[in-house]
Write a structure and sequence with these properties.
Order of helices and strands: HHHHHEEHEHEHHEHEHEHEE
Oligomer: single chain
Structural class: alpha/beta
Largest sheet: 9 strands, mixed
Number of strands: 9
Strand order of the largest sheet: 1-2-3-4-5-6-7-8-9
Distance between the termini: 32 Å
Shape: globular
Helix content: 25-40%
Strand content: 5-15%
Length: 340
């Protein structure tokens, strides 16, 4: 249950950077260990050992799952399935054709006024529907010296006014390196806004330390953080406190984007509960994405007609400001495609 009082508190961040690294290191990477933790018979479910995209689940996130329920909506998002091995037409490694928008190493420039930096290749959790699950992160990884060439591209493109930090997950970097990236961005006069796309405040709230808060506290840039939650059960007290610290101490505008997933949140009442939990935690619902057709995730997909019906029903159940925009990203389109 969400305690609304946390949303109005200043939000005390965790104080020790070692805590989040330990929490990350002690997560689940094997089904047998997770099954024991969740009190599920490990022989009741056949999960493949995928070398290219293995299971990774922080213990704190697993603790929000319903014990004994193999169909728990949080578990379904992160538990490898044999269905991922199916080869299905139109589900491809690069569904958004991001390779076509990679003018310099580490940077994607698809939209006119904003550029996205692939800041870190790793995530704290491996979501099975991730549209970058097949992404060649190694080709984008580089040293500080080469990152300076990337920032020079931004400096020369004066139509850019916003930089997005993404990945992987940018908050997987240590605080010193994040501060260095922030300083490079601040030094480019035409950049007004910094946006961070991250799932970490939801799946690994221990990462929101006092040190991290201080990195972003003093900057001329307007700051937006887009988190990623798909179900109300993801938002517990630890998450709410971490979000409050980001909002009240570092002055982030907090938004959420979700992905519409079969068996997880393909129900208007579930989405209503999510929006209300987010709003109580100080986060505005932003986008509800139709699944990107990435290889290995077809079993999560919902046809567009059904998605429209769910979204229409959601609009009838709750206040307009709690209804995220239903959207799809289409390769080579110059903006998100709004549905309905």
């Amino acid at each position: 249950m969400i305690h609304e009082k946390h949303a109005t508190q200043q939000g005390k961040a965790h104080s020790k950077s070692a805590d989040w690294k330990n929490a990350l290191a002690t997560g689940f990477t094997h089904w047998q260990d997770l099954a024991q933790f969740l009190e599920i018979d490990p022989t009741s479910y056949n999960t493949p050992a995928l070398k290219s995209f293995p299971m990774r689940i922080p213990k704190g996130f697993a603790s929000r799952m319903q014990k004994g329920d193999i169909n728990d909506p949080l578990l379904l998002q992160v538990l490898p399935s044999v269905k991922e091995l199916d080869s299905i037409d139109d589900y491809v490694a690069d569904p958004l054709q991001e390779a076509d928008f990679n003018p310099v190493k580490g940077l994607l420039h698809k939209y006119k006024n904003r550029a996205l930096l692939i800041l870190h290749p790793a995530c704290a959790v491996h979501c099975r529907y991730c549209f970058r699950r097949e992404y060649d992160y190694q080709a984008q990884t580089q040293s500080k010296a080469l990152w300076l060439d990337t920032f020079e591209y931004i400096r020369k493109n004066t139509a850019l006014d916003e930089v997005i930090l993404s990945g992987g997950d940018p908050l997987m970097h240590n605080d010193v390196l994040l501060a260095w990236f922030l300083a490079q961005i601040e030094d480019i006069s035409h950049i007004k806004r910094l946006r961070i796309h991250t799932r970490i405040p939801v799946v690994l709230p221990e990462r929101i330390t006092d040190e991290l808060i201080n990195v972003f506290k003093e900057t001329r840039l307007q700051k937006i953080m887009v988190i990623h939650a798909n179900h109300a059960n993801e938002i517990n007290d630890d998450v709410t406190v971490a979000l409050a610290a980001l909002k009240n101490q570092s002055q982030f505008t907090l938004l959420n984007q979700s992905t519409l997933l079969k068996g997880v949140n393909d129900n208007a009442h579930i989405l209503k509960a999510l929006s209300e939990a987010l709003f109580a935690a100080g986060v505005m619902p932003y986008y509800l994405h139709v699944l990107d057709k990435v290889k290995g995730a077809a079993h999560f997909d919902i046809d567009e007609s059904t998605a429209k019906k769910i979204h229409t029903k959601l609009k009838s159940l709750t206040s307009g400001y709690l209804v995220p925009k239903l959207t799809r990203e289409v390769a080579h389109e110059m903006a998100k495609t709004w549905i309905n």
